[in-house]
């Protein structure tokens, strides 16, 4: 079996206020997601979200169920979003083959029993980043290329947050039960993401940072708007954001990140904004 998983439990904002650096990182930071020929999964009790990654090099890797799901196969009661952040690769879903290039996305609906991942070239392997949520209904599997995404330009160089948002797996492009995924690319000279910050009590979120240059880092901010905390993050690492928390970051260079969401609402604009002057 090539699946490796861990479980993360939900924490209240009252308790998180007292966390030291090590505890904060243990609870919310996800490292070592992209391991050769292994599929790593983190099952979080925030909206039963699963974050994962797989890098097939020498062999194809199958998506297998894990014990917390109590299911015969992984997507028995779940849906899955995938974004490739590596070389060209293939995702095979119950016999149907989907080719994914760099920054292409794939949505897989509930009820698909056999999902496998492979790379076209072992020297330049695909790197599949995964997000999965519970699903109440079957929807068709659909590929969304980077070019197919809904694109929004936000921010400015003057405030160091000029960025391109690509909505890949959202309700305007793909039918889903609740998983939502997209990608934000920071322009050269810009380092701030999701600033001004916001919270959304109706759903949680996970950020995956990549294209972070070697020897550079991103400082991710979380916590309640008046009780913020920070986590320093490296390339190809993810961080869990509870519904009560902001999720924002500033890098020592520009970078790209993938955002994924789950909860009650599929409305991308459903958020409560936080004034910069009121953050603490």
UniProtKB/TrEMBL annotation:
PANTHER family documented for this protein: 4-DEOXY-L-THREO-5-HEXOSULOSE-URONATE KETOL-ISOMERASE
Pfam families cross-referenced by the UniProt entry: KduI (PF04962)
Pathway in which this enzyme or protein is active: Glycan metabolism; pectin degradation; 2-dehydro-3-deoxy-D-gluconate from pectin: step 4/5
Class in the EC hierarchy, top level: isomerase
GO biological process per UniProt: D-galacturonate catabolic process; D-glucuronate catabolic process; pectin catabolic process
Comment on bound cofactor: Binds 1 zinc ion per subunit.
GO molecular function: 4-deoxy-L-threo-5-hexosulose-uronate ketol-isomerase activity; zinc ion binding
InterPro entries reported in the protein's UniProt record: KduI, KduI/IolB_isomerase, KduI_N, RmlC-like_jellyroll, RmlC_Cupin_sf
Binding site for Zn(2+): 198, 200, 205, 247
Record-stated family: Belongs to the KduI family.
Enzyme Commission no: 5.3.1.17
Protein name: 4-deoxy-L-threo-5-hexosulose-uronate ketol-isomerase
Keywords: Isomerase, Metal-binding, Zinc
Gene of this entry: kduI
Function: Catalyzes the isomerization of 5-dehydro-4-deoxy-D-glucuronate to 3-deoxy-D-glycero-2,5-hexodiulosonate.
Cofactor: Zn(2+)
Source species of the chain: Aureibaculum marinum
Gene3D superfamilies given in the database record: Jelly Rolls, pectin degrading enzyme 5-keto 4- deoxyuronate isomerase, domain 1
Chemical reaction(s) catalysed: 5-dehydro-4-deoxy-D-glucuronate = 3-deoxy-D-glycero-2,5-hexodiulosonate
